[in-house]
Amino acid sequence: MLRHLVNFYVGKNMFEGGLQKVQNDGELGTGFEEKFSVDSKQMKLAGYFESIGGALLFFTLFSKTLVRIGIIMMNLVLGTAIFKHYKSGDGFEETKGAIKFFGLNTLSFFETFRK
User: Are the C-beta atoms of residues 49 and 90 closer than 8 Å to each other?
Assistant: First the structure.
């Protein structure tokens, strides 16, 4: 039961964040793009991955396979975000949101293999 609640929480947050990136056409501001050396096409792609992955987590009650695919999609984006934060010199405070969701997703992924 706890896994399902965590999946809904992460899915909702990631879906909203990804949708925001897609609706802004990948534009998050010049300072952001310069700091992390990403362009709008990369951000839009990350937004699609986040949105689709977040939406797949809503199937937590029906399909472990769809949840696993969603988690993998989101963890690719989150892992890249964590790397970009540390590469740009950001500390733990700026990175902890991505680390939190990455950790919750990883735990949920391993939980899907339990019977």
Answer: no
Amino acid letter at 108? Answer: S
Mean pLDDT of 51-66: 90
Token pair in block for residue 44? 């839009």
Please count the residues of the chain: 115
- Cβ count near 14 (within 10 Å): 27
Residue 108 in contact with residue 1, Cβ under 8 Å? no
Between these two residues, 105 and 114, which has the higher pLDDT value? 105
Which of 115, 45, 29 has the alpha carbon at shortest distance from 80?
A: 45
Bigger pLDDT: 43 vs 53 = 53
Listed in sequence order, the residues at least 6 apart from 59 whose beta carbon sits closer than 8 Å to its beta carbon are 66, 67, 70
pTM, to two decimals: 0.84
Separation between Cα atoms, residue 76 and residue 78, nearest integer Å: 6
